[in-house]
Design a protein that fits this description.
Layout lengths: L1 E2 L13 H10 L4 E4 L8 H8 L5 E10 L6 E6 L6 H27 L6 H5 L9 H10 L6 H9 L14 H10 L3 E4 L9 H13 L4 E6 L4 H14 L2 E5 L24 H16 L1
Parallel strand pairs: 1-2, 2-3, 5-6, 6-7
Antiparallel strand pairs: 3-4, 4-5
Length: 284
């Protein structure tokens, strides 16, 4: 059993990379990828924790891409965290996040939800500050009952406290990942709100831009979605990857490796991912 989609305190998870590796070992996982949002800050700790451990560690990232309908994320595996192109792009993303966070804080205060930046700092990890941290503070202050309510009422796209931020295009995300020596994978494609026909066309377009895989095995995918995405991958020559999207205590019902209980990412996915990485290195 493997898990190729997890988050740590360096983005919006609640566990350190070291703790994630230990938990993966306890749960019998063969391999674990760290895919924090828009940051590689936790990769050094992940790889150090993996030295001598029974769990193989995979350096990764999850980049947010422009998306007109829904949400599009691109996962990158076996990236070089010191890649100059990737480093420059992540700095630009951090700047955009900082600007967006100030705007969200202003909007919440104007709406009567009195928050201070110091409130957020108590909940943030070591690097990326995002909307989940605002949601945690709103729950703590008693303004909403849950993180989901915070998004549904205030923070989701189209809601009154939402603010846009800088995103690269999906093609740019793929390019930066490949430039860093990694394999680019479309994360949880069901979160892109398009018809099957249009989504299939988009995946084909991204495959033409260097996309290497699609996340077919995912905690929230229904069996029919998983079957559909596997079929698309076969048609387009893409890998099928998968993971739990584990965030720790922020999603207590979601378990490392098994998601909501039904998730099983085949072990052979890891070898296929390595082969695709090696193929990409040859073509670069």
């Amino acid at each position: 059993m493997i898990d190729l989609h997890t988050h740590s305190i360096y983005s919006d998870g609640t566990h350190t990379p070291t703790e994630l590796v230990a938990m993966a070992g306890e749960r019998g996982l063969r391999a674990l990828a760290l895919t924090d949002h828009d940051t590689v800050a936790g990769i050094g700790e992940l790889l150090a924790a993996g030295q001598g451990a029974a769990v193989e560690t995979v350096p990764g990232i999850e980049l947010s891409a422009e998306c007109g309908q829904g949400t599009m994320h691109i996962l990158g595996y076996y990236i070089d965290p010191a890649s100059p192109a990737l480093t420059a792009m992540l700095a630009k993303i951090r700047e955009g996040r900082a600007t967006r966070n100030v705007e969200i804080l202003k909007k919440l205060n104007r709406l009567g939800y009195v928050l201070r930046w110091s409130d957020l700092e108590k909940h943030t990890g070591k690097d990326v500050v995002g909307r989940p941290h605002f949601a945690e503070v709103l729950v703590e202050r008693g303004y909403v009952k849950s993180r989901k309510s915070a998004f549904d009422l205030l923070l989701a796209k189209g809601r009154p406290a939402y603010a846009e931020r800088y995103h690269c295009s999906a093609g740019e995300c793929i390019g930066f990942i490949r430039e860093a020596g990694g394999v680019a994978v479309l994360a949880h494609p069901a979160t892109i709100h398009l018809s099957d026909t249009k989504l299939r066309a988009l995946v084909g377009e991204l495959a033409g831009q260097g996309l290497g895989g699609i996340e077919a095995y995912y905690a929230e995918h229904r069996p029919e979605n998983r079957k559909k995405f596997i079929g698309w991958a076969e048609e387009l020559g893409l890998l099928c990857t998968g993971g739990s999207d584990f965030h720790g205590k922020n999603s207590p019902d979601l378990k490392l490796g098994t998601g909501f209980g039904q998730l099983r990412v085949p072990d052979e996915v890891l070898e296929q991912l390595k082969a695709r990485r090696d193929q990409s290195d040859t073509l670069r």
